[in-house]
Amino acid sequence: MTSRTGRGPTGLRARWAAFGLATALLLTGTAAAEPATRPPERSPRVQRVLTLVVDQFRPEYVDLFDMRRTRALLRESTSFPSAYLGHMASETVVSHQVITSGQLPRDMGWADEVYRDTDNLLGEGKDRLHITSGLGRTQLDTLMGSTGSPKLGDYLHRAFPGRKVVTVGGKTYATHVSGGSGTDIQVTFSGREFACGPDGAKTWRGPAGKAVPSYLSAPACGRFYVDSAAALDYGTSDTAPAWMYPLDGNHYIPGRDPAHLGGDTWVADAGMAMMEREDWSGMLLTFPGVDKAGHMWGGITDDAVYPPGSDEEMAHLRYLARNVDTQIGRVLDRLKALGQDDETLVVLTTDHGGMPATRFHGVNAAGRGDYNWFYGRSAQGDFLDPAPALDPLVRTGNVAGSYQDSAVRTWLTDTSPAAKRRAASAMAELPDVIASYTREGDRYRLAHAAPRRMTPGERDWWQRHGQELVNTMAAPYGPDVIGLLKDDVSYGVAGDHGGAQRQAQRIPLIFRTPGGRGATPDTPGRAVDILPTVLRKLGIVPSPADGLDGRALPLS
Fold first, then answer.
1. pLDDT tens across 287-341, in order?
2. Strand pairing report for 495-496 and 280-287
3. 536-553 per-position pLDDT tens digit
4. H or E segment at 46?
5. DSSP conformation class of 40
6. What DSSP designation does 130 have?
7. What is d(CA 389, CA 360) in angstroms, rounded to the nearest whole number?
8. Are the CB atoms for 422 and 448 separated by under 8 Å?
9. Which residues are registered as beta bridge partners of 185?
10. Each residue of 108-151: pLDDT tens digit?
């Protein structure tokens, strides 16, 4: 694959410079964080939490794309420049559950895009493989409910009975996972079910989910219905490398129809409409635009400037980063205009980092995204056309399913210790694999390592975090064998995540409290620490039986 290159990040803010491999605190995980069960920081003014999740948002984008509203938010917030995601898989469908449950993947119900149903919870057969991003809301609720642990919505209902908990997002699975059964309203896009255009074709998406308010869904073909025709692709369906995962109309981008703007603008507008009309205690808005561009073009290297108003401009990262920055500003302005600002804790973060695939081991062809990412048979479909790079693993004849992006994770048919060792040896032969692991109970054991394949920086990060990160996936439903990859490597698409690399793990983590001051603690916070931190600030004391894996972080 011919990869686009760019000048890379420049002029980074000093507050993010503290994130470095030499930071000794990264060795200690969350040791510097405060226990979740310590008496809460009581603040009678904080009665709401607004969580803004910008999918695949790297901290460098704030300066690289001059995200002024986000920069202003940083100045008045407590931000953690040493933050990292802290778990695998570093995926949307995993991390949104981590953020709202305070649990690591090994404890929260599933650990990856692929889920092995060891207890037949979904009723389609014991050990059946499922692609979690393809599960429906009731299926996801079943998996979340299987843990018996509360989520953010459950805590908020106990503390503020009668008030609503809301999630909004452009991705159905991100919206549902962020909510769970404890959420009152979930708003996301439907499938292509509506004929709102002059051609009469059912290519439009409308608001769908759980208890969608009528002021969003009516009238039919009103503001919250967008054209999602596959033919409306802004040139991405026949342009490499975006053609592996092209745009589908205005699902992930705003588009040009001022009456039917999609993407992150749609998310912000739906959220603000509910801010005005609902008595809410919690709202989570998840914005998908940056992630879509990152996958299509490579992420941080996609920094070119395109002609204003052109298809190229709208489909690339610079435009979408600035658009989500605008939407963040609009949401915060509306919060203030409604008089809700001085009682709301605002959280800004992401579900994972991302990196360009300057070494790409998938097949660079139109529509190849799903076939590059998944190999095997699942309840959501069969994907049996693997990239040649997977041959050593496939030839073992023991692969039930495999998911590969910036790491390779494999579920085996024969899961005996000897079979796992053979698979780990085959995994070690794959291009750019630096270490392979086999699952043994509640942890992974290192089977093979290739220090000579690593740069000094890669080796340092792997020694500090490799074992920690793979262990967060150690559950019966998790992969049997894991292969970690070098930096800037993907088997999926042009820009990717999922693995343990520093770029896939580094995240912004920002909390703005009413009347708070700007601060940059050295604590290396993780995504799993967000819920305990929110609970502390809201004066909610979790029970030890809730099974929180995170710790409350210190806020100014």
1. 999 999 999 999 999 999 999 999 999 999 999 999 999 999 999 999 999 999 9
2. unpaired
3. 999 999 999 999 999 999
4. none
5. P
6. E
7. 10
8. no
9. 166
10. 999 999 999 999 999 999 999 999 999 999 999 999 999 999 99
Work out the widest C-alpha separation in the chain, in whole angstroms. Answer: 63
CA torsion sign for 194, 315, 324, 131 is positive
What are the structure tokens assigned to 395, written together? 């030839």
Q: What is the mean pLDDT of the chain?
A: 92
Residue 37 has pLDDT above 60, yes or no: no
Q: Quick one: CA dihedral 310, 316, 317, 320, positive or negative? A: positive
- In Å, what is the CA distance from 514 to each residue of 113, 151, 276, 537? 37, 24, 19, 11
Indicate the SS3 state at residue 262.
coil
Which two three-digit tokens encode residue 453?
């394949």
| Average confidence (pLDDT) over 203-224 | 98
CA angle, 420 as apex, 416 and 421 as ends, to 5°? 120
Q: How far apart are CA 307 and CA 314, in angstroms?
A: 10
pLDDT band at 200 (very low <50, low <70, confident <90, very high): very high
Which residues in 96-108 are b (16+ Cβ under 10 Å) and which e? bbbbbbbbbbbbb
Alpha-carbon Rg of the chain, whole angstroms? Answer: 22
Q: What share of the chain is helix, strand, coil (3-state, %, to 5)?
A: 35, 20, 45
Structure confidence at residue 23 (pLDDT): 32
User: For residue 480, what is the DSSP state?
Assistant: S
Look at phi and psi of residue 400 and say left if phi exceeds 0, alpha if psi is from -120 to 50, else beta.
alpha
145: its two tokens: 């409910």
pLDDT of 25 reads 31
Half-sphere exposure of 361 (CA within 13 A, CB side): 20
Sign of CA dihedral 484, 487, 493, 496: positive
